[in-house]
Amino acid sequence: MTFLAAIGRTFLAFLVTTGQFTLFAGAAVTHCVRPPIYLRMIGRQMIDVGYYSLPVVGLTALFTGMVLALQSYTGFARFQAESAVATVVVLSITRELGPVLAGLMVAGRIGAAMAAEIGTMRVTEQIDALTTLSTNPIKYLVVPRLIAGTLTLPVLVVVADIIGVFGGFLVGVYRLGFNAATYLTRTWEYLEPGDVISGLVKAAVFGFVIALMGCYHGYRSRGGAEGVGQATTAAVVSASILILMTNYLLTGLFFS
Amino acid sequence: MTDPVPMISLAGVTKRFGDKVVLDGVDLDVARASSMVVIGGSGTGKSVMLKCILGLLAPDAGSIRIDGAETTRLGRRAREQLIGRFGMLFQGAALFDSLPVWENVAFGLIRARRVPRREARTRALDKLAAVGLGPEVAGLFPAELSGGMQKRVALARAIAVEPEIIFFDEPTTGLDPIMADVINELIIKCVRDLGATALSITHDMASARKIADRIAMIHQGRIIWDGPVGEIDHCGNAYVDQFINGRAEGPISMQVRAF
Predict the structure, then answer these.
(1) Does the distance separating the beta carbons of A135 and B112 come in below 8 Å?
(2) What was the ipTM of the complex prediction?
(3) CB contact under 8 A, B90 and A129
(4) DSSP tally for chain B: helices H, then strands E
(5) Pairing of strands B214-219, B35-39
(6) How far is the alpha carbon of A129 from chain B, nearest alpha carbon, in Å?
């Protein structure tokens, strides 16, 4: 009987968590469209999410573009298709690797920071203090982060796309001996607007997911420093897994 | 009492977390413009009681009346309006780390009262002066202040919106005796200047004696004694007697688990 009780308890806990998460997400999204909107907070978050993530995302994109060119060249050389390297690089970066890798890097950087900051505010009663000062904590803390995440990640991914393609270009021209003009032509030749746009839509979804996970886990953290640590870990892990899962779903949706 | 309707009135307030009963039918009246201090050991439900009155926690049963009006089943908007009448000094000060001192103090004015930032800053400086802090601290961040200074800023923040009711959660805990007395004096002065109703929870008897008009003692989720501060030394209640004299021996045994 204790065995069944354990299963029941786990299942009930799962339902409780699902319910809490749904309520939280619902409240957060409905507050996004209800005034007042704190523009100052949104601006501050956008600088945090976008500007300060540029070095990390840029470096990730650069080396990903470089390794893509190198790998696809050695692979395609086996059936004399080296000329496809430029196309493979630009399609992989814009459709998949740009948004996914930028999303994962930002999840580690920003999702963790959001969970830690909001979690600390929770355990030091700053969130209760907001309420006593007639300020809705969801509106003041969560909504600006959700909006900033959703709007800023696509911009980051545009930058990542450009830097990633540039990385492929560097390796293609200086290491593999392509002609620079030919490489650029090949890059443009088969690229369609849909490739870039689908990547940017993915980025917006990932940005939303990262911010939502960071805020949710931070908001519900309890039990001092340890609780905040757990919230941070949970935010990064759940955001990363959700990014990979929604990436598959969205790819299926766009290119089916 | 001259005013028949108490400012805060709790009747049979019950709150449990899981199987743990934290508040087991709390009855408490606080008269308008008076200062009530609730004493009790750690883990007896003092903080939970405050959070229930503020609406941060919903009680499972019972009635909480503010100024005669029932508040336990208020909607979101009515609750937001009601909370504008409260001020609260949190135990750990709970200042916003990301904002400078003056914006902490002006927070309620800017967000809730829609006071322009420039004017809010002037009023914040006035409130800081009222708690004995000069304009030079206005631009500092909370992390740069000592514990006592943080408490003062938090007090300035609590009184900035000129609330009718102020809650003090362990106002002197963690302060040295001199700073504790400074905070006590400031509490008395601020409450008197505002004409506000004050409800404090503490286990610091020196502080309780100083700031209270009436004292109530909470034990195992119930108010077991309630009377004017002058009567507490000969109230004839063994629990109260043990608590105010700080004796290990007596009817109260220590709670091990926190909530």
Answers:
(1) yes
(2) 0.84
(3) yes
(4) 8, 10
(5) parallel
(6) 7
